[in-house]
Write a structure and sequence with these properties.
Mean pLDDT: 93
CATH class of the domain at 498-703 and 838-898: Alpha Beta
EC number: 2.7.1.1
Bound molecules: 6-O-phosphono-beta-D-glucopyranose, alpha-D-glucopyranose
Shape: elongated
Largest sheet: 6 strands, mixed
Pathway: Carbohydrate degradation; glycolysis; D-glyceraldehyde 3-phosphate and glycerone phosphate from D-glucose: step 1/4; Carbohydrate metabolism; hexose metabolism
Structural class: alpha/beta
Enzyme class: transferase
InterPro entries: ATPase_NBD, Hexokinase, Hexokinase_BS, Hexokinase_C, Hexokinase_N
Pfam families: Hexokinase_1 (PF00349), Hexokinase_2 (PF03727)
Oligomer: single chain
């Protein structure tokens, strides 16, 4: 061979040299792109994709079971089906059974349906031979293309790469497409449980001992890597704890131009003639699908220069795709390479000389060496990220390797490893070949996914009884209505329908100063309410919240009422009211049988109160007795008012259509204006009177709500201070929802659906979950914030746990809102019918921490009312200053009606 020839070949191949400095630039470029893609920085358009895979841990080694694996897209136009048996830690290793199928070109370039039907057909053929019978089969789908995953079994194809371009698949969930194709076959009971990139399969295939692989590298027809990343760095996920495997998709590095300094004219030509021009520029310099083609283009060029084959080409050499990576690998074989080169060239219709064969070997070597070195640069970028993790293993990093080019090429792996050591001398990397071509790893992910799917089913089963449908709500509404009528008639009913002796709404002419007490909600308050002209001063309130220790709410009645009087006296002193005898209204949020405005016999305590010697007594008398015991104090108790009534009156001052009062706080209850003629307990049949329904007790007679009581509700009821009582309230109000949630969480922990089965002591603590917790956790938070809320309760949760807890809260609070809505619907419908109207416009005055603070509760109540009482137009008006103000208005109205203005 003459000098010139050698020179021309050398010159041409020099273009494939990549200097160490260039490799370092590529490494830095990829690392920068990885970081930008993770951080989702606005305005940056990184060329690697960094796709979260939802694989959250490396294998534990405990995974067990039989799995079917379908591999599509890793090795060119072949499809592989495997039957993998995982035997856990102790079981003997079992070899998988596998079969390969060639996908015809008309399918790789055909329609999506053809492709998936072909795949499903291969599954059936494989299973027929295996004779697995009709057992349910769990399938893991190894789909080696860039996908946007939203879970382990949901994956939207972003774009085809390599040699595939089937229509109608990009933008679709490939799991769903595969499921549909399997259904079309109809032969086997196959559940597609997980979808995995080939790099993830490789990473998950490796033995967890002595240490698990945290990186998966594939060099096959395409090239790519995945690795375990701190989830807090993956901006898209908005989580703060744990790790997740990220599919780098480095094949597209350079699509923005970063590879220009190392690209040769051959690379540009190859790209232009490829199926997806302008994309996957890095992959086109490394992946096996392209190496043969690069070699072919170089050979044509050299032949054209007269440097090879005596200047002659052949039609076969000029045909796209006639040189394969398999040829390249064989030609580079140290012992038989020369002969293989000759054979290939002859097959291409050329008559090569011995020198030609040697030069062709050099061409192959240059192309594949560049590939190995570029791939090493990319891998060191990934290693740099893994090594930046502060919790990384002291044993260095293990990289699982897979793909035919990496495994079968005589020098590729050695050259890659050598370059990694050059570029990252202290990386301490171990390369571990993946097993079964990654099939085992896919099976491991499938095992995890099927465990998660089981957990999801268990969660759904647990929450199913909380999800009420319209018919059930309609039944509640009807039963509520019936109980209202019976209660009004004095017949046996769980709802007491108590007359309040409030017969008129404020009209704005009320004036005067009043004292008010507000007992029975979250806060005990004393108020000084100044009622002025509605148009000018309006209502002014000065109030103070006093604490009510449990020793007082659950001690003796005398202690309770003495404490109340002490608080009033303190308040009077602070506000220079001592010595004045202002009319006093008492908001007392418990069921009382009233015989007049200022007389109320406590029928029974509810919520958290249990003071002795009060039930059956007139509360006003108990208060007056306490005033007498505290000598030198004069108070004039004018009215006792339920909080619902106070709320209605307070809102009625703003809106004359307000004829319903609703409380959804610690407890729940409603009142409304009923026709006096319907109220048997009070004589007279003209005008209206406000009725305190005491609906919290709805269902206490066992005639309603039975079907809604889940075992969790029963436990909450049993552990309460009044078992069997206030059954409707216990499904709805703030005092109980947290407890119901806690019971459900305990159950889910027991099933190991939550917290990995770990039973935290705090979850055993009664009342640890407050209404505030539900409101917080259900608001629009990022995952990490949800998790932080759990942490405040000493529940060490990961973000997945946090989301499950949120689902539980949502189910429990939604049921509560819907049941409450059914009650409101019954009330407004009754008012409408009382008045013989086709349509009723009415305002409901509302108060209570749950209704006010929960992010969705109020909307859900409204939705239910709209659906259940379509002939009523219901406005919900929030009460601003609590029901103490309304209670003062009750006294003010009474004073006005008695013809005596307040002092
Ligand atoms: C308040 C009333 O506004 O609402 C209380 O003044 C009432 O008397 C309360 O009981 C209901 O809400 P919670 O959430 O405090 O029980
Ligand atoms: C291509 C695919 C990628 C895959 C790689 C190796 O780059 O886009 O998903 O991992 O090939 O098969
Ligand atoms: C309880 C009380 C009731 C009150 C309600 C809201 O149900 O029995 O009187 O209105 O709580 O506070």
């Amino acid at each position: 061979m003459n000098e010139n020839t050698l020179e021309s070949v050398q010159q041409c191949l020099n273009q494939f040299d990549v200097t160490e400095e260039q490799l370092q630039q590529i490494q830095a470029g990829i690392l920068g792109d990885m970081e930008r893609a993770l951080g989702r920085q606005a305005g940056s358009s990184p060329s690697v994709q960094m796709l979260p895979t939802y694989v959250r841990s490396t294998p534990r080694g405990t995974e067990q079971g039989d799995f079917l694996v379908l591999e599509l897209g890793a090795s060119g136009a072949t499809l592989r089906v495997l039957w993998v048996t995982l035997t856990g830690i102790s079981g003997p290793r079992k070899e998988p059974v596998s079969q390969e199928f060639t996908i015809p070109t008309e399918i790789t370039l055909g329609t999506g349906q053809q492709l998936f039907d072909f795949a499903a057909g291969c599954l059936v053929q494989f299973l027929d031979q295996l004779q697995v019978g009709s057992q349910p089969i769990q399938l893991g789908f190894n789909f080696s293309f860039p996908c946007h995953q939203t879970g382990l079994n949901q994956s939207t194809l972003i774009s085809w790469t390599k040699g595939f371009r089937c229509s109608g698949v990009e933008g679709q969930d490939v799991v769903q497409l595969l499921r549909e194709a399997i259904q079309r076959q109809g032969a086997y009971n196959i559940e597609v449980v997980a979808v995995v990139n080939d790099t993830v399969g490789a990473m998950m295939s490796c033995d967890p001992s002595p240490q698990a692989c945290e990186v998966g590298l594939v060099v096959d027809t395409g090239t790519n890597a995945c690795y375990m990343e701190e989830v807090r760095h993956v901006a898209e996920l908005k989580e703060d704890r744990g790790r997740i495997c990220v599919n780098v998709q480095w094949g597209s590095f350079g699509d923005g131009g970063a590879l220009e300094p190392v690209q040769t004219p051959f690379d540009l030509q190859l790209d232009q003639e490829s199926l997806h021009p302008g994309t996957q520029r890095f992959e086109k310099m490394v992946g096996g699908l392209y190496l043969g083609e690069l070699v072919r283009l170089v050979l044509i060029h050299l032949a054209g220069q007269g440097a090879l084959f005596g200047g002659v080409t052949s039609p076969a050499l000029l045909t796209h795709g006639s040189v394969h990576v398999q040829h390249v690998m064989e030609i580079e074989d140290p012992s038989h390479g020369r002969a293989r080169a000759q054979a290939m060239l002859q097959e291409l219709g050329l008559t090569p000389s011995a020198q030609d064969c040697a030069q062709v070997q050099r061409v192959c070597g240059a192309v594949s060496s560049r590939a190995a070195r570029l791939c090493a640069a990319a891998l060191t970028a990934v290693l740099a990220r893994v090594r930046s993790n502060p919790e990384r293993s002291p044993l260095g990093v293990s990289v699982a390797t897979g793909g035919r080019l990496y495994k079968q090429h005589p020098r590729f792996s050695a050259l890659l490893q050598q370059t990694v050591r050059l570029l990252a001398p202290d990386a301490d990397v171990t390369f571990v070949p993946s097993e079964d071509g990654g099939g085992r790893g896919v099976a491991v992910v499938t095992a995890v996914a099927s465990r998660l799917a089981l957990q999801r089913r268990q969660l759904e089963e647990t929450l199913a009884p909380f999800r009420l449908h319209s018919q059930q709500l309609k039944a509640v509404q009807a039963q509520m209505r019936e109980s209202m009528v019976r209660g009004l008639r004095g017949e046996s009913s769980s709802i007491r329908m108590l007359p309040t002796y409030v017969c008129a709404m404020p009209d704005g002419t009320e004036r005067g100063d009043f004292l008010a007490l507000d007992l029975g909600g979250t806060n005990f308050r004393v108020l000084w309410v100044k009622v002025g002209s509605r148009s000018e001063e309006g209502i002014k309130i000065i109030n103070r919240v006093f604490s009510l220790p449990e020793s007082v709410t659950q001690g003796t009645g005398q202690q309770l009422f003495d404490h109340i009087v002490d608080c009033i006296v303190d308040f009077q002193k602070e506000n220079n009211l001592s010595g004045q005898t202002l009319p006093l209204s008492f908001t007392f949020s418990f069921p009382c049988k009233q015989l007049g405005l200022d007389q109320g016999i406590l029928l029974n305590w509810t919520k958290g109160f249990k003071a002795s010697d009060c039930e059956g007594q007139d509360v006003v008398s108990l208060l007056r007795a306490a005033i007498r015991r505290r000598q030198g104090v004069e108070l004039n108790v004018v009215a006792i008012v339920n909080d619902t009534v106070g709320t209605m009156m307070s809102c009625g001052y703003e809106d004359p259509h307000c004829e319903v009062g609703l409380i959804v706080g610690t407890g729940t209850n409603a009142c409304y204006m009923e026709e006096l003629g319907n109220v048997c307990a009070v004589p007279g049949d003209r005008g209206r009177m406000c009725i305190n329904m005491e609906w919290g007790a709805f269902g206490d007679d066992g005639l309603a709500l039975q079907e809604f009581y889940t075992p969790f509700d029963l436990s909450v009821d049993q552990a309460s201070i009044n078992p069997g009582k206030q059954r409707y309230e216990k499904l709805i109000s703030g005092m109980y929802l947290g407890e119901i949630v806690r019971q459900v969480l305990l159950h889910l922990t027991h099933l190991r659906v939550l917290f990995g089965g770990q039973e935290f002591p705090s979850l055993q603590t009664k009342d640890i979950i407050k209404t505030k917790f539900l409101s917080e956790i259900e608001s629009d938070l990022e995952r990490w914030q949800v998790r932080a809320i759990l942490e405040k309760l000493d529940l060490q949760a990961d973000c997945e746990d946090a989301l499950l807890v949120r689902e539980v809260c949502q189910a429990v609070s939604r049921r509560a809102a819907q049941l409450c809505g059914a009650g409101v619907a019954a009330v407004v419908e009754k008012i409408r019918e009382n008045r013989g109207l086709d349509r009723l416009s009415v305002t409901v005055g509302v108060d209570g921490t749950l209704y006010k603070l929960h992010p969705h509760f109020s909307e859900q109540v409204k939705d239910a009312v709209r659906e259940l009482a379509p002939q009523c137009c219901v406005r919900f008006l929030l009460s601003e200053d609590g029901s103490g103000k309304g209670a003062a208005l009750v006294s003010a109205v009474a004073c006005r009606l008695a013809g005596a203005a307040g002092p």
